[in-house]
């Protein structure tokens, strides 16, 4: 969450070093959100292990507590939720503040549209700027009543007591958040809700619904469910977040002498675009001990330094690597030749405008980076030192921190939020692995 104190945080990264050792990054953010949501709506108790104790997932948990759900923890990744059943949520006393978390807001919009009571959703300055019509419009087609600002942003005022009906909806943008919002509303709708994706997006909602015993069907690019079922709680193990592992995959790839092992990483094929992209660039990444845990594939990733080459990023990998582009851009800056990305306009409406913010930061470090409306061209070269701004975006801050491994001089990263949004303990873990990073109060 962005507040004045956090805006003032600065990372200072001394150049050089290498990454080594074995580490387990924190739990997957997307799965942690969904585990809380479905655990709350289930019957019986849901025990979650490996829960991400980061601000975003904690915002979802706080929202469900405000909706009358009892939960114990989280303590060292363990969280126990007493499900209230699909119709057991209570009206909250006031607005639900979801901080920096787009996933919380969009998924909750769908889920709360089906409740008997009114609710209001808000968040920090970044979240209040993000587009919400992508969920409110199809939800309205299902019979929901949700008011946004004139610009289509939060606060979202959700009018309860509406009768929802299933729809057959083709997503105009590849978005797991929109798909999930509609499926969650579909739990409360008459008839069938069917969502068709223009390209595959993360499917954790579908997998977890099935894990809770709710019938969900996939045919090709479509997923569908019918309202009126029940969810049964049970144990959930959240794998380590590949989106957090991505910073270390890039760091080890660009720093000579690096050899790093990342344990128990979620390897859901709708999330592994970063591995495909880095491998195409020449990265030395091996996957070992792959197995299925709680309905999600996991495995160990071994990564070593390797010379990287610029590539044209295959369009089909874009939605499968959507959160990893800040890190991938740093890899591109260290690669020989040009890397080109297109078809990624979504990056402009993430926690920051990740195309512009990364282009500005790379330019400040001496790299030629040309932003395009839907992507970027990055000419690999010598990363100098310099001062960049993270614009309060956790993934920008961590990506530029890793750039220090290949830089010729010190990098100062201003306007870092608590990277705790998605990765509590990043600074200590990165330092232990070999990154020369310190945190200070910013200017
Ligand atoms: C997420 C989906 C993605 C991703 C976000 C988490 C999710 O957003 O960027 O960090 O958990 O469903 P979109 O679905 O909007 O692309």
UniProtKB/TrEMBL annotation:
The family this protein is said to belong to: Belongs to the EPSP synthase family.
Function: Catalyzes the transfer of the enolpyruvyl moiety of phosphoenolpyruvate (PEP) to the 5-hydroxyl of shikimate-3-phosphate (S3P) to produce enolpyruvyl shikimate-3-phosphate and inorganic phosphate.
Residues bound to 3-phosphoshikimate: 29-30, 34, 175, 177, 323, 350
GO biological process: amino acid biosynthetic process; aromatic amino acid family biosynthetic process; chorismate biosynthetic process
Enzyme class: transferase
Location of the Enolpyruvate transferase domain: 13-428
PROSITE patterns: EPSP_SYNTHASE_1, EPSP_SYNTHASE_2
Catalytic residues identified in the record: 323
Subunit structure as annotated in this protein's UniProt entry: Monomer.
Pathway it works in: Metabolic intermediate biosynthesis; chorismate biosynthesis; chorismate from D-erythrose 4-phosphate and phosphoenolpyruvate: step 6/7
Source taxon at top rank: Bacteria
Name this protein carries in UniProt: 3-phosphoshikimate 1-carboxyvinyltransferase
Keyword Oxidoreductase: no
PANTHER family (UniProt xref): AROM/DEHYDROQUINATE SYNTHASE, PENTAFUNCTIONAL AROM POLYPEPTIDE
One Gene Ontology cellular component annotation held by this UniProt entry: cytoplasm
Residue numbers binding phosphoenolpyruvate: 29, 102, 130, 177, 354, 395
GO molecular-function term, one example from the UniProt record: 3-phosphoshikimate 1-carboxyvinyltransferase activity
UniProtKB keywords: Amino-acid biosynthesis, Aromatic amino acid biosynthesis, Cytoplasm, Transferase
Subcellular location: Cytoplasm
């Amino acid at each position: 969450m962005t507040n004045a104190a956090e805006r003032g945080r600065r990372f200072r990264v001394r150049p050089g070093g290498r990454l080594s050792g074995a580490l387990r990054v924190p739990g997957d953010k997307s799965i942690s959100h969904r585990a809380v949501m479905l655990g709350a709506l289930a019957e019986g108790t849901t025990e979650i292990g490996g829960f991400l104790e980061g601000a975003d997932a904690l915002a979802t948990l706080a929202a469900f507590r405000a909706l009358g759900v009892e939960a114990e923890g989280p303590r060292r990744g363990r969280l126990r939720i007493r499900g209230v059943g699909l119709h057991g949520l209570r009206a909250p006393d006031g607005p639900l503040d979801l901080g920096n978390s787009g996933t919380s807001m969009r998924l909750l919009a769908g889920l709360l549209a089906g409740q008997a009571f009114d609710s209001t959703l808000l968040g920090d300055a970044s979240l209040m700027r993000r587009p919400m019509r992508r969920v409110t419009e199809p939800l309205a087609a299902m019979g929901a009543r949700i008011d946004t600002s004139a610009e289509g942003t939060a606060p979202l005022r959700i009018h309860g007591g509406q009768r929802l009906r299933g729809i057959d909806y083709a997503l105009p943008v590849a978005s797991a958040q929109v798909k999930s919002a509609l499926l969650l509303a579909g739990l409360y709708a008459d008839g069938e809700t069917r969502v068709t994706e223009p390209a595959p997006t993360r499917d954790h909602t579908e997998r977890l619904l099935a894990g809770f015993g709710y019938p969900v069907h996939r045919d090709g690019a479509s997923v569908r469910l019918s309202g009126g079922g029940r969810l049964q709680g049970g144990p959930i193990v959240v794998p380590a977040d590949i989106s957090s592992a991505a910073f270390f995959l890039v760091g080890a790839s660009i720093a000579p002498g690096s050899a790093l092992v990342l344990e128990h990483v979620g390897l859901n094929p709708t999330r592994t675009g970063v591995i495909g992209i880095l491998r195409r660039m020449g990265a030395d990444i091996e996957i070992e001990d792959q197995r299925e845990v709680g309905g999600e594939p996991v495995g160990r990733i071994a990564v070593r330094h390797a010379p990287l080459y610029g590539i044209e990023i295959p369009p089909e990998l874009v939605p499968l690597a959507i959160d990893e582009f800040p890190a991938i851009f740093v890899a591109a800056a260290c690669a020989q030749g040009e890397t080109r990305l297109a078809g990624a306009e979504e990056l402009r409406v993430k926690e920051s405008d990740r195309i512009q913010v990364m282009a500005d930061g790379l330019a400040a470090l001496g790299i030629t980076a040309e932003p395009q409306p839907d992507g970027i061209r990055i000419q690999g070269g010598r990363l100098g030192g310099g001062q960049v701004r993270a614009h309060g975006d956790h993934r920008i801050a961590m990506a530029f921190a890793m750039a220090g491994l290949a830089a010729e001089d010190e990098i100062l990263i201003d306007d870092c939020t608590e990277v705790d949004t998605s990765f509590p303990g990043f600074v200590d873990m990165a330092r232990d692995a070999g990154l020369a990073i310190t945190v200070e109060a910013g200017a």
